[in-house]
Amino acid sequence: MRSAEFDKEKVLRSAMNAFMHKGYAKTSMQDLKKATGLHPGSIYCAFENKRGLLLAALEQYRLDRKAEFEQYFSGTQPTLDNLKAYLDNVVAECISCDSAQACLLTKALNEISDQDTEIQQIISDNLSMLQQALAEKFELAKSEKALSEQKDSDHLARYFLMGIYGLRTFAHTHPEAKVLEQLAEQLYADICA
Amino acid sequence: MRSAEFDKEKVLRSAMNAFMHKGYAKTSMQDLKKATGLHPGSIYCAFENKRGLLLAALEQYRLDRKAEFEQYFSGTQPTLDNLKAYLDNVVAECISCDSAQACLLTKALNEISDQDTEIQQIISDNLSMLQQALAEKFELAKSEKALSEQKDSDHLARYFLMGIYGLRTFAHTHPEAKVLEQLAEQLYADICA
DNA sequence: TCTCTTCTTGAATGTTCGTTCAAGATACGC
DNA sequence: GCGTATCTTGAACGAACATTCAAGAAGAGA
Fold first, then answer.
1. What CATH number does residue B54 fall under?
2. Which residues of B touch A100 (CB under 8 A)?
3. What is the pLDDT of residue A100?
4. Which of A1, A89, B21, B155 is the most exposed place for a label (fewest CB within 10 A)?
5. In this complex, is the C-beta atom of A101 within 8 Å of any C-beta atom belonging to chain B?
6. Interface test with B, best of A105, A129, A132, A169 (most B CBs within 10 A)
7. How many domains does chain B have?
8. Are residues A93 and A164 in the same domain?
């Protein structure tokens, strides 16, 4: 026996970055080779093909984001404060990173959309999971009496997610902190109102 | 002398559709030939290359959308009603069309982003124009006493646009009329509140 | 009707792409 | 320390790509 020499998570995160910056179609195997340090043969051995690498990268992205999300709600602060912090982090990401630091899920969703129903389904499922997780947080906020019982948590989660999508796209044309922060502020206010 | 045989607007709208459905990178010249009915030579003669065709298509898209926008505000109804109608139309587009009927501008913005600063600039400028046009409508609504003078029209325009971006992305995973209409409803309410 | 000019056509070009595979390298079991 | 199973390497492959161009088709002017 002999085990593989590369760190799978590291490779997948490099691939994620490559896909996020150039998009799936424009990222060539040569780009992936440069990004991951793996030779084509190894990539094909480990992930079957370019599409398999994208699938694995999407799964890694899901795990990373899930861990990140849960970290935001692990403390003892009021749930709504955690939600605001989470939103502020989205804004910070939009500003700080190189301009193309979008979410891999939405980036891939926009690009692949109709052409690959399986990937489309995976992405939709992932985003639905995030939506579900958000809805649970809104339920939690209601139980903390920080949010009116009248509110529909599912609707709030959808609206919140819609806002995040919008923010990310908006950031492409207006990467100015002040403007994005103001938008996030209103989004949060409208949800808590 | 002999004039060209094809209808430039028709060709550009066909190209627009092709680019919107498959994205720029994935749309091959063969696809464009099929979509436009033009042979490669003619395309290169008229638009220099594939990128030139995208530029021309973007310009045509801008003109079409500008005309569409102005039509929504040509009547004598209150401006806010027109805005709501405009928003409802966005939602209707998200639902009715084949799932990939996004906005060419945002689609291209998401895909090309960093790789072509000239196209990035053109798209940003176009979206800024729409934002500016929206801000003027909010100003108009204020003068009609339908909106508080306290409100910042520029901010409202940005928030409205953010919502539209978000709606379009959201529609990719939830193409259900009821959900999208509910989101649009709240967006409108939050802006007018 | 003939000629000139311009447009149209689609096969050919060189390049780049995703993918394969056989040869070489390396760690593990004995 | 040897044999072997497995991983790594990178050259090679056909396919598909954007682009070119020379030959053919067709309107305009006489």
1. 1.10.10.60
2. 113-114
3. 56
4. A1
5. no
6. A169
7. 2
8. yes
Residue B67 counted as domain residue = no
DSSP codes, B145-180: TSS-TTS-HHHHHHHHHHHHHHHHHHHHH---HHHH
With a cut of 60, say whether residue B100 has pLDDT above it.
no
Torsion B126-B128-B134-B137 (CA) sign: negative
Query: What phi, psi does B23 have (nearest 5°)?
Result: 85, 160
pLDDT of residue B135: 98
Same domain, A51 and A79: no
pLDDT at A2 over 90: no
- Note down the domain range covering B19: 1-58
| Distance from chain centroid for Cα B119 | 15
Measured between beta carbons, the chain B residues lying within 8 angstroms of A180 are none
Nucleotide C27, nearest residue via CA and C1': A2
Strand runs (DSSP E) across chain B, as ranges?
none
Assigned token pair, B34: 């099929």
Facing residue for A26 by CB, picked from B25, B159, B169: B25
Supply the pLDDT for residue B125. 95
Specify whether B91 is located in the same domain as B166: yes
The pLDDT assigned to A6 comes to: 78
Cα separation, B45 vs B47, in Å, equals 6
Please compute the mean of the pLDDT values over residues B98-120 and round it to a whole number: 84
Distances (CA, A) of A163 to A28, B59, B139, B161, B187: 32, 28, 24, 10, 10
Per-residue confidence (pLDDT) for residue A126, from 0 to 100: 96
**Between B113, B173, B174, which is nearest A172 by CB?**
B113
Q: Which residue has tokens 């530029």? A: B55
Residues of A in contact with B105 (CB under 8 A): none
